[in-house]
Request: fold
Amino acid sequence: MPDLGLLAASEAGIELERFALVPRPGKQWGDVVASLIDGFDVVLVRPPAHLKAGLARRLVARVRERQAVLVGVGGWPEGASMRIDARVTEWAGLGAGSEGGTGHLRAIRRDLRPTGRLFRTDREVSTAGSHGVRSA
Amino acid sequence: MIRTLVLWGPAWPLVAAGVGDVPSVTVSANRVTAASRPALDAGIRRGMRRRQAQSRCADLVVVQGDSGLEARAFEPVVRAIESLCTGVEVLRPGALALGTRGPSRYFGGDEALAAELGDAAQKAAPHPDSWRVGVADGVFAADLAARLAMSPALRASAMSMALRASAHRGVSGVPIPADPLVIPPRGTAEFLREQSVDHLPFPKLVGLLHRLGVHTLGRLAEMPEADLSARFGPEGVAAHRMARGDDDRPLATRRPPPDLEFSAELDPPAERVAAAAFVAKSLADDLAEELSRRGLTCHAVRVEIETEHGESISRLWRHDGPFTATAMSDRLRWQLDGWLNADAGTRPTAGISLLRLAPTAVSGGGGQRGLWGGDDAAAERAARALARVQALLGPEEVQTAVLSGGRGPGERVRLVPWGDPPEESKTAALPWPGRVPAPAPALVHPKPKSLEVVDGDGVPVRVSGRGLPNSVPAQVSIEGGPWTAVEAWAGPWTADERWWDPDPRSRHRRARVQVSLSDGTAHLCILEKGTWSLEATYG
Reply:
């Protein structure tokens, strides 16, 4: 994920010195992700457009064995235990209409819709934070 | 140098798990870490891949290592040895060390002592591959001797070495060794000379030494210590001392000041391991914290437990490297485990009322808390994974980020290759007028996207030299896409950067504007030299 906003990550409480980044895994995507799952508890990836279901399943099995967390940004073809759809509902702080040009972005309100095996019912969770992402 | 005896149970993780007499291995990261004697006979070696090992032996049992179980199973052996000798130090589950000076005089020589202790251990916990005993000068050499004891080929070479050493000194009548391997006094350096550097407890250094063509401890010992120190730091010096056959205890070991002892009373007394282990964890954390505050590292720690009835048990644990909080709380938990789950006769009669942790060997410096928060195993695992990725893609392709000074979200984070020494950026804390306030955008485009921003009349929006927009942004088009209405906006934040620089390419006059659009997205736009671009996207 070469475009990940690292400043935002740091504002969200991630210690950058414990954060490794592989921006261009290229053709060896599968090998790289598998290695990272072996070493880290949380791995954030953007799956390539044509991720094969077999590879996706193998990676999920590896994640289970390692008790790690794999987050596929933009979806995961097969085997995910949870899916979270996020939608921004409000950009708070920006001046609208005649007040345009005033203030600054202060908070982002999002609706998160988790679905999957871990959730019995679909429900919406609203989050808002003055510092980027806050979990609900 | 202290004459030391090491008692070692080969493949202890497997013996403790009760599968020592069948082909079995423990596996970590898909590599064999320990193999039982039948597995070794089948041609399975440490470091083999799991699949490869299974192909050598169809009915191979693969077990997960469980250090708690290993320590618990080792407890009867420690107790048996302690009933014969004092000053027993547990090196790790399955291995213990003691100074031989007193006991060896009592039992009539190192060989007799070694045989006696080997029998005692075998009686306390029958080992299918028998307990190995090695005696030499220093813990490292004794440990190595224990590993080589009874392994006929290696022992022959080690003994011919020892014989040559005594012949060299004109000593006659070297006793034919019994099963334990006893290196004659002052013969340790000779014994170590032909051994591989693989035995050193520094995996990284060992790899490097092999690549440098230094394969034996003898070659390492021949090098000047000062050079090793200059090239490899404290690790190099420690390795050199081990290779020379000098004591492996840190040179500057001092008695710890008394207030480094940490204890906790349990009220109500704990009957179960889990309850006490929780306290043990915080105790270990406190001690580690205090040690690191004083810049000290701890190599041995005494674990003491007392019960309501005044029974007490204390045990000394040593560690190859500096003790981390996790390593200490593990030792404390193993100790609790071993004691509370002992046979009826030796089990405490009441709940545990006091836990005490006291460092017994500390040295200054060298053991800074790791980058990864001090958890050795996790840091090692992460480092291995990253090394593998670096091997796949090249070292620059694994990066980490350092906060640094700047105004835009991209400038405020600097990417450095993983493994380069992290340098603190002093500029991050300085005020940066014209910086866009938090929250930061979730996506920062590596290459800014082209953008057009127009007002209600379709005229491009400009920002004046005074930092004021000439009109109100109404619509934007990203990379030539459809026009999208601006719902709200803020800014501009202007910055005149590096105006003093003679190179015009590093001078920037920029204005940044936040916009939220009718399609529900929000962006950070940047205007420079009359051209808009999309720097980052919020989300």
Observations:
- The mean pLDDT of chain B is 78.
- Chain B has 15 helices and 20 strands.
- Chain B touches chain A through 57 residues (CB under 8 Å).
